Amino acid sequence: MGCFKGVVAVGYINEAIDEGNPLRTLETLLLPTANISDVDPAHAQHYQDVLYHAKSQKLGDSESVSKVLWLDEIQQAVDDANVDKDRAKQWVTLVVDVNQCLEGKKSSDILSVLKSSTSNANDIIPECADKYYDALVKAKELKSERVTVHGSNSTCTKNMTTITTLI
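Below the sequence we write its predicted structure tokens.
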């Protein structure tokens, strides 16, 4: 009987994904019969996007015999979406911390700020702290000049790429 309930949950979840309504998808992910863990209601839209992408990939795979996402695939997509959100939070924190360090002209703090990011701590060379700080100050000044002159979001995006490359 439990297996049947899981199959029913799979049907509901796949229908919700196809509808494109993040709240409906969230509702189905939270069904007790689905038994999907670590679902955060705040991430409903991201779950919808990741699940839709996963299902689209599966539909495009000529070797796939199934055209629906099964519970293990749904759980994997939810887990991946949660990792995405965690990484995004880490990047936002890093950018805020770097900007505070630059605005406060605290060159001595740049090393600890850059190392606080779990994604790149091993890539930071302590001997290069002054160079990191100088490059980030210069990149921030260029960004400020370009945004002031052009007022363009595309410039912001290009400069953010430059800053994250430097980090």
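The chain has a mean pLDDT of 85.
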